[in-house]
Design a protein that fits this description.
Strand content: 5-15%
Number of domains: 1
CATH topology: Rossmann fold
Number of helices: 11
Strand order of the largest sheet: 2-1-3-4-5-10
Structural class: alpha/beta
Largest sheet: 6 strands, mixed
Shape: globular
CATH class: Alpha Beta
Bound molecules: 2-acetamido-2-deoxy-beta-D-glucopyranose
Helix content: 40-55%
Length: about 350
Amino acid sequence: MEKLQKAATLFLFLSLISFLANLSTAAAATSPAVFVFGDSTVDAGNNNFLPSDAPKANFPPYGVDYPRRIPTGRFGNGFLSVDFVAKAAGLRRSPPPFLSLSNAVQGRRGVNFASAGSGVFNTTGRYVVTMTQQIKDFSTFAGNLAAAKGARSAAVFLSKSLFYVSVGSNDLFAFSTVLIPGNSTQKDEIVAAVLPQFADQLRSLYHLGARKFAVVGTAQLGCVPFVRRRFPGGACSPDLNDLPLRYKTATRALLGHLAIELEGFRYSFSDFFEIMSHIQSDPQKYGFTELAAACCGSGRLNAEGPCTPNSTYCGNRNQYFFWDETHPTQEVYRLAARLSFYGPRQFAYPVNIHSLLKS
Ligand SMILES: *[C@@H]1O[C@H](CO)[C@@H](O)[C@H](O)[C@H]1NC(C)=O
Ligand SMILES: *[C@@H]1O[C@H](CO)[C@@H](O)[C@H](O)[C@H]1NC(C)=O
Ligand SMILES: *[C@@H]1O[C@H](CO)[C@@H](O)[C@H](O)[C@H]1NC(C)=O
């Protein structure tokens, strides 16, 4: 019911959107809007609006480095990569959480549909907004857009917009807990189960008007403090890294296939796995001194307990790779955003987001 109201309000403001879209110049690496889908790596506060059983980060010390130290619901100490990417794409503000919208003006330059804990599968993460639902929510938005400004100009607007998708790590993590160590055949079977579902989700977005995709690859799951705390010296688990490595390699190949299958489908693959291992192999270059322990939490590597209002947390947060037991710090997100927006093919394939937006 509330969504219907939102839909009604949308109509009032959509002519404004087309006006703004026309203002954006053809060659600049800017985007009229950014639409965001996925999990806690990109959730800017949607889960704040979910029942208490959903994963939450809307309490201190989360957000300690966010302006005015606001715990926005982001799973980090400050901004996420998507915030930096949105800014680089010419947005003044990061796209607001879909569930926070009270009028369409707030969504005229994009919307963040992401929900912490969600995965490619509907069954990954409980009490969350599934990817299926996130895409449905976008479908509602796109329908209103077309109704208000005409199908053609809505299509043009969406085709120039950036679709930023970061999901899959939670699915792999769920599988890995029942599999480890697992052999290569079993890992490839998991990849073969998850990836076609993800492909269908990208196709759904394409059929709703998306053309420019920034897809973030899965992370080095074996290197998060939650896993490292169980290994001598806080080492990474090669077994656990092998699954996301296979998955992200297959994702990269999938995107190449989709670009052939779907006319006008363009993409930039942000290789977060590669970015992580690059930083971890030369941490001093980027000013990191602590790669294994979480900044906020409790117990061994600060990763035996979650980051809560009672947790102690580090002061030199720009030197920590990880903020809590599974999420990186703002400094890592900032670096990852820079490398995926402007970086070489090693990190952003086949083109970086800057080139994607110019094309
Ligand atoms: C999720 O559920 C919907 C129906 O509710 C179904 O159409 C879809 O295939 C499911 N997707 C995944 C990835 O489980
Ligand atoms: C992988 O493990 C499964 C289950 O234990 C087994 O059936 C299969 O033969 C193994 N494959 C290889 C290549 O070792
Ligand atoms: C945090 O500390 C307060 C008071 O010291 C206590 O009442 C509360 O239960 C603690 N909360 C958690 C989550 O440990």
